[in-house]
Amino acid sequence: MAEFLIHNMAPIMFASLVVILLLGYPVAFLLAANGLIFALIGIELGLFQNNFLQALPERVFGTMNNDTLLAIPFFTFMGLILERSGMAEDLLDTIGQLFGPVRGGLAYAVIFVGALLAATTGVVAASVISMGLISLPIMLRYGYDRKLASGVIAASGTLAQIIPPSLVLIVLADQLGRSVGDMYAGAMIPGLVLTSLYVGYVLVMTILYPAAAPALPLDARSIHEDPRLIPRQGLVTALLLLVVAAAAGAALSGRAAELAMWAGVLSEPPADLVRWVIGGIVGVAAAAYAVSRLGINGLGDAPRFNTMMVFGLAAILTVAAVAELREIDPSMPRDNAAIWGMSAVIVLLYLVAVVNTWLKLGLLSEMATKVIIVLVPPLALIFLVLGTIFVGIATPTEGGAMGATGALILAFAKGRLKFDLVRQAVDSTARLSAFVLFILIGARVFSLTFYGVNGHKWVEELLVGLPGGEIGFLIVVNILVFLLAFFLDFFELAFIIVPLLVPAAEALGIDLIWFGVLLGINMQTSFMHPPFGFALFFLRSVAPLRPYIDKVTKKQMAPVTTAQIYWGAVPFVGIQIVMVALTIMFPGMVMHYKGDAPTVDPATIQMQAPGGMGFPGSFGAPGGGAPGVPGLGGPAGIPGLGGPAPGGAPAPGGLPAPANPLAPGAGLPGAGLPGAGLPGAGLPGAAAPSLGAPAPQLGAPAPLGAPAPTPPAPANPLAPQPNMN
Prior knowledge:
- By secondary structure, this protein is an all-alpha fold.
- It folds into three domains: 72-221 and 417-434 and 528-590, no CATH class; 227-391, no CATH class; 605-725, no CATH class.
- The protein has helices at residues 2-7, 9-22, 27-45, 56-64, 71-83, 87-99, 105-120, 124-141, 146-157, 167-176, 180-208, 230-263, 272-294, 296-300, 303-328, 334-358, 366-391, 396-413, 419-452, 455-464, 469-484, 490-507, 512-523, 534-542, 562-585, 588-591; strands at 548-549, 556-557.
- The protein has a two-stranded antiparallel sheet.
- The longest helix has 34 residues, at 230-263.
- The relative contact order is 0.12.
């Protein structure tokens, strides 16, 4: 029996954890108890060294000193304040009026507002409850299918899990030992693509089942235009149409020239200026024909078209601003230029809308003015949080603090900042933060014992040995996470499962940012899984349980059953699975996070140890070997930090490499790299110091000989990746 336990301690420990989790015990205490009990068993069997437990206090204090996790209470507080500030009500009302005349317009509005709330709050509960309270009664009032309405609201709320500033991405970045900013940048495009897939599903439903999502009737459209301003607004709309059409024609002229060359009409491409002029003329001619057919009054009586032209002009100005910024400063990254350009155009739009309202100029339709004024505050908050992080002005923690301050300012501006509101937000934030911290401490205790009994090696060998290599590993891992999401929420998955997967992912050369975003999309389903999806519970708490009398129509309305909520969520779970497949098929959606920032030649990095330390293979220290310090990614470095694992092969310079390098991802003993290192020395679990951006070239030799060329950044996330811990 003892022999069996010694050889199978790791799988028995993991299996017991899963079984007891399913019994419903509190996760934080279960993790800690499981770790301590198996530590005692391991000590008794001689498999676990009792001095490993001496690292436990350091691991706990390392967790409490983790600055990255400070972003969680900041973003939670921001989301709770915004939930009660009235921003969601204004957005849903205005965007609902904008899309109202279209079939499925309310569903489109819910998805759009869900994405905006995700980018401002990052909290699923706030989004689902707000939209459930505001939009669900309106959707039911005007005949929306109950399953479709429930699914759209629940799925749109879960966008807060993948669109930055998501709490899931913060936790994943911490567990993977990667930058939160890189995780945010990598998740942005997948989040927008997932939003587009939701919109596509609603579009298909409105085509196949028009009665499932009818348009708003005329008496439900509350934004009305002043008929006296129709000629003036029509003239402005016509001018905007001409400008937008000219710009669109110039932009599409390149594609038209390519088609003409393919068809044999042109033998060589025309000059850029000629192409732009011809394209602009064609666009203006098409716009002029449309104006002549519709008439000035016809354009003035189309407030939504006026709104479209205003935002079309804003897009043109944004492109021009980005090009100008890149012209002024060619070294500015494209993403930074886009953020600054969009910010300038948004401020300009807001000023125009405010001046138009104050001076009663009547240049913009009432619809366009209201949309601009309602959209700008959340967009400003998005820039305050995400823009400052992406540009590099603030860290994610600092961005969260600015977002919390901005949320308080918005609530004050709307006259809703009261002591009770702040007290409730602080109370809920403290509860969630304590919940996260206790789970993380329990996970640290569990991982201490699990690594002490070589559990990480067992998991790594199990996953690396799967047939199919990287693809087989990704398929098995995603199926595992998907199934566990039926019973565990994202915090539990991130703290228990993800650290076990990191060494295997690194051993297979998978980019951890890409891997983290992939897991984040998959874990999003944990909020939508019947029967334990939290988004479904949140919606159930605000959906009508019994027949009720509608406030507007005075008709008796049927309740929304739990089965309807569950069945409504199923198609969106399928869409999320499709998104996982798309992320694997098109890794460039995430890998763009590497950006176009200049790289650092490792030959220019100078690191010198004080005299007398004499590390073998140190950087210019006495003893003079070539760079081979374990863990710094030199030729004899630890596999988890980008260097090969020769296992005792001599390092360049004649000195032997470590005979038994640590397992991939384990890092130096106690250095605090993901997987917590070997317990018993140092500060396991603390963030490793960074040598500055970008780190992918830290695996090259230090400048003891000829300078090493800088290798290009790998474009494929499945290619071998350096570890930047």
